[in-house]
Structure formats: C-alpha cells, structure tokens
Amino acid sequence: MQQRGTVLLVDDEALVRQSTAQWLKMAGYEVIECDNAESALRYLVADFPGILVTDVKMPGMDGLQLMAESFSRVPDLPVILLTGHGDVDMAISALKQGAYDFIEKPFVPERLVETIHRACDKRQLMLENERLSQSIAQQSGIDAKLIGFSPGILRLKREILALGELHTNVIIYGETGTGKELVAQCLHEFSPRSKHNFVPINCGAIPESLIESELFGHESGAFTGAAKRRIGKFEHANGGTLFLDEIEIMPQNLQVKLLRALQEGVIERLGGNQLISVDLRVVAASKADLLAEEGFREDLFYRLNVSQLYIPPLRERLEDVPLLFEHYAAKAAAHHQREVRKLTEQDLRTLHSYSWPGNVRELKNAAIRFALDERVSTHEILYPKSVVVDAPTIDSNQPLAVQVAAFEAEVIKASLQQYKGNIKEVMEALDLPRRTLNQKMAKYGLNRGDFV
Description:
This protein is α/β, with parallel strands linked by helices. Helices cover 46% and strands 12% of the residues. It folds into four domains: 6-136, Response regulator (Rossmann fold, 3-Layer(aba) Sandwich), CATH 3.40.50.2300; 148-312, P-loop containing nucleotide triphosphate hydrolases (Rossmann fold, 3-Layer(aba) Sandwich); 315-382, Helicase, Ruva Protein, domain 3 (Orthogonal Bundle); 400-450. The protein is built from 19 helices and twelve strands. Helix 1 (14-26) links the parallel strand 1 and strand 2 (30-34).
C-alpha cells in the first residue's frame, strides 16, 4: 500500500498507543511510536516529513510543552492533541497556541484518520512549497525568469531555449495577462541577439495615425509636428528583437509595409526616400488565432508563423500558483521593506481553487496587496464580497438537522465577523431578509454588538 504520510505518535499509555498505531498503519500511514515526549524530540527536525499526534497528559514533558518545543524546531508542523479529560478551556488555549486540532478520548478512529489525513496534506503542501521556493532561489538562467515547474511551463522553457538558437520569426499565443512580453524577452535574452536591443511595441496602445511613424521612423518635416528626424522601432531593434504585441489589431495598410520589411529586410522612414537595411527577429504576440482573425493578411501570417509558442493560462498550471504568488509577494515586501507574510493553509487552498481569469497579471496584483496589507487573506482579496468559513468540527453521528444548524451558525458568525456587525452588509452577502437574519441570530445566540 502506498504510504499516505508519516505520523509521530506520542502516548505514555502502551495499549492506547499500540492500538492507535495499528489502526493508522492499516489506514496506510507510516507510524513512529514514542512513549514519552523527550524521545519524540529527536525526530523533530526542520525537514521532518510528517505530523505530530500527542497525548496531553504525560509524565515529565506533557503534550502542550512538546507542542511548544516542536514549533520552535519545526514552525509549520501540524500538531494534533489527544486528551481523555474533556478540558474545554485547555482545548481553546491549545488551538490559540497553534494546535491543528484537539480530539477527546475515547475517539472514533475514523474521525482521527480523517483529521490526520488533512494534517498530512497540509504538511506535504508546505514542504513542497518550501522545496520549490529554495529551488527558485538557487535557479539561474531561464528558470529564474519563467517561474514554475508545471508540465506546460517546462515545455515552454524547452521550446524557448531551442528557438533562441535560431533566427526565425515567432508568434506567441496566450490569453491576456499570461506574460507574452516576458516570454518574448526570454527568446531575446537566450539568443545570439541578446547583446542588441529588445524593442517592444504594443500595436493596440498607439493611435493608428502614429503607429507607422513609431515602427519606421520619420524624416524632419514628414508631417505637422515632425520637427526633426526620428529613428523608428525597426532601426532601434536592428541586430536584436522587435516585439509586436497585440498584432491582430494592426491596420491592414500597415500590414503591407510590415510584410515588405520582413520580406526584403529594408525599411523606409516616413517622408524619406532612402532604403535602410535592417537585420532583426520579429516576435509577434496575439490572444487570437491570427489565421482565423478577420482582416489579418494571410501572407503576413505565414511570414511571421515560422515558429509558434503557446503560453498556458494560469488555470492550466495551478501547481505553479503558490510559488508565483510567494515570489511576487516577497518582491513587494522587499521593495517596501516589509516582513514577508506566510501563506496559511486556508490561503493556499484558496489560491489552488481560484480560476484566475486575469492570469499572472491578476495573481501579481493579488500578491502585492497580500504582502502590503496584513489584515486581508487571499480569500478576501479574490472574493471581496464573499465570506470565509472554516468548516466547524461536527460530530458526524449527530442527526443531519443538528449538523446543518451548526454549519449555518458558523456561516452567519463568519459573516458578522467579516463585516464587523454591519447587518446591511451581512444581509447582502448572505442574501437574507432582515427578519430571517434576526431570527437566525436569535436562534444561535449571536449578538451584533459582539462583532462591532
């Protein structure tokens, strides 16, 4: 059976420890048994791959002391506490100190396994992110430019390095915000043309009346306001790379001149008669299929389409999201001289579950806000009008109505906390009429004044 995770189990009662270990092994976990806290400490090193499950009441160092010591050695370690004393105050205190969960003896084995499963998932996620972060810090070359280890990004890196050695024109396809200019910069940087200029121009950001002058330059007096000669982007990129973003927007009359420049390797400044030789690579970018785009010339498409690169949207490489988020958040924190915030388990789950319609551009903006505002979670940034609800621990043996009521109470409580007791905003967020909300608050003993 494939191991589901590692559990360091500490309990001074041999019968309880052995039976619990046997149950966990049957569930697919590797179990390390210790009969006291002191002997467990030798396993608690920074890269310990598992979680800690410990009894609270033990001779010598007790479970709470062991938890505190484990946090000093392994700060993100999930710790599950077991007790047979039903001390509610102790449970609350332990959770505030950072315990992952608190389970009362005698416990239902299935519930313990379920809690351990979630804790192990959290531990593995944290370890993987730490490994990737360390890997990024040690990376150089293209790995330091294009961050990510998903299959789509690894493929893109290989293709960029292969095309970098060639002199062919390239079309980059990708949705808005995927990083088309960054990919074009990588094509330039990892090519023999890297010592010359990389010149970007956004065809959609320049008025149609000016784009020809921007590309090809103009002579003095070529038009009203042309007081002196101006070198265009083509000449400036001579020997290097010209990046044409949003090329699908380029006017048709300019497409003809671009085609001629690519075919003949010469340009002519606006208002001039001299032919100027240019040697450059053109990298075009589009969010649409150029061949299917109405108004885009086929002959220009085939001149540009010697090679293609496809940038996957962020929703197709969610495994890269935490690493990208931490990268941009760390950069923002360093720029503003702030401490780097750590992502919580809930933050990570939100990042993984979000669809990222704005791609890397949206992620970068979210990461900057997260780094600079300690009051907001990733959920509040990405879902500004929704409510964050941590699922309450509910006894599955209770009747369905009791379980539903417990969850409903948590949702209303979370909304009251988020909107600081503002009843109008809570009504809007939960889509509840005032009377219904008042009745439910009374039912669950929730007082608006406690959240203001």
